[in-house]
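Homework help board

Subject: predicted structure for assignment chain

Our instructor gave us this sequence and asked us to write out the predicted structure in token form, then describe one feature. I got the tokens but I'm not sure how to describe them. Can anyone check?
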Amino acid sequence: MEDKAVNAGVTAQTGFELQRNCALLLILDDYTSYKDKNFFVCIEHQDDFLFAFTTDDHKTLQEVYTYQSKKKSGSIWTINADFGEIITKILGTGTHLIQDNMSKTQDYKHKLTFVSNTDMSLKYSPNDEEKKEGKEPVSIKVNEMNEIQSFNSLHADIRNKIDGSVKDYCKKHTKTFDKGEFNNLILQWVDFPKTANKQREALIGLMHSKFPHVVDPKASIELFIELFRKVEQTYNQGNVARLLDESKRLYAEDLKATLDIIEKEQRTYEKWRNHAQTFAPIFKIPLSVQDSAKDKIRETFEYLKDLNNLDHKKIQKFIYENDYREKYYSVAEMFKGYVSEVRESEHINLNDIDIFFTCLCAYVEFYDEGNL
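My token output:
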């Protein structure tokens, strides 16, 4: 069914920062549990973002985790009309997932998470009649001390109050909901700053702690953000969110490839740093280029990814087809040989410095695991 709201975030260009940053936070924070699974990420789709775990061919759903990410300035979440509206929409996402025509395994299941960087204070206060019956106040917080809370684990009186807020919203707006979807509801607090800039700083810190071998976590986070941008602003076709819409997907392979690029850049920079005093005079690399070698290496890997950069692809192919580790006795002589023979055997319109850096990047890509 067509729903203009499924493109509201794309059209308004609001909320993307928190949604995307929160998705990236969850992936990086628990990457070890994601890295060996087949999944894709969607942003501004069935919900703010989701992780869909699939069979090897990405054609059949095994499990889906959806997230509605919300921030609240200057206060906490309580069980009120706003909360009821959010939960109603999240429960509706579960219904849409069941109705989605993408095939599912027999044991398919999904989780529906309301995630926020603002504390949730869930309270039930009995009225006078209920107090006479022995009812007592109940209070549960979802915060840094209690980060994840499933709906079914909540006190019955809290569950009933949330159920009531959803019913009130549905009655007021003539909507319906599947009560069974409460079984899939999760409430989650994340330790995440309020502003986009501070969120990026937190992601950089997380990148540094989870991947300590990455020399430039800031550039790495920017690379991930650029990857997410490719799908976050793609419209749901016909205003209908379909999991079969591949244009909205960011695959696990894409994320793994990005991490692979980051690690290759790191290894290449380390090789440059270890041999810079030898490489620089041989290939007449100016001090200005030496000082910005990290950027030069990143730029070169970008060229190598682009099929339209024929000169870089020719050099990459030459390195792949010619392993000189058996031919030369020193690193410096090996790269002198690469640059010289690339010049002789290929028609290349690059200068020697660019040829050298392309050879260095391609060599690390194909042959080096950190032992050069």
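Reply (TA_rk): Your tokens look well-formed. For the description, you could write something like this. The longest helix spans residues 252-282. That's the kind of observation they're looking for.
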